[in-house]
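look at this record:
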Amino acid sequence: MKLFFIFVSLGVVVGEFSSEWTLWKKLHGKRYGSFQIEELRFKMFKENRIKIQKHNAEAQNGLHTYTLAMNTFGDLLQSEFLQGYTGLAQGSFSGEHTVILDNSVPVPSYVNWTKNGAVTAVKKSTYCGSCWAFSTTGSVEGQYFIKNKKLLSFKKGIYIDNYCSSTNVDLAVLVVGYGTDKASGLDYWLVKNSWGTSWGDQGYIKMARNHKNMCGIATLASYPLI
């Protein structure tokens, strides 16, 4: 009898994933060239879904400050994802174009340039490691809006900065604001990514601020002057 209940339970889990898999493929327009490939991708989907469930259960118990959800990358291996959607080229930094700011000037406790009209829609990079292009053009778009009061969506891949700093960082993103979360009291950076609106919170993520340079977010910080 115990074995029967275990078998039924496993069947329910597989059935649940199968239904979710069908809906997920339709939502994200996923098609595969063969049964073998789809079988592999379904396996990755199930493994990622289980990781999400485990993480969110832990988050409910206060072990994490964020939750996870399935998105368009749910059928990828971690190695595939890192190879295709990161890839910040690291160069050398001479300090020749460094601008020293006046730290005595007071700054507001909250900034959100998306509410001020200075941020274009979230883009989705293809499988080519082009995050640097989207973050660069995003910063130029924002500065252009601030100076000219007109928001333009520049094309990616035409602005190259040869003076980027070099550290162990492999993803370029655009910080569009900062603040303090009222519920948790945690300081955060509001970050715009280039992985489409199905990722994060409609393409955005709140990264920990004043927390030992979380993920190296301040390591290669730069902005254009127009």
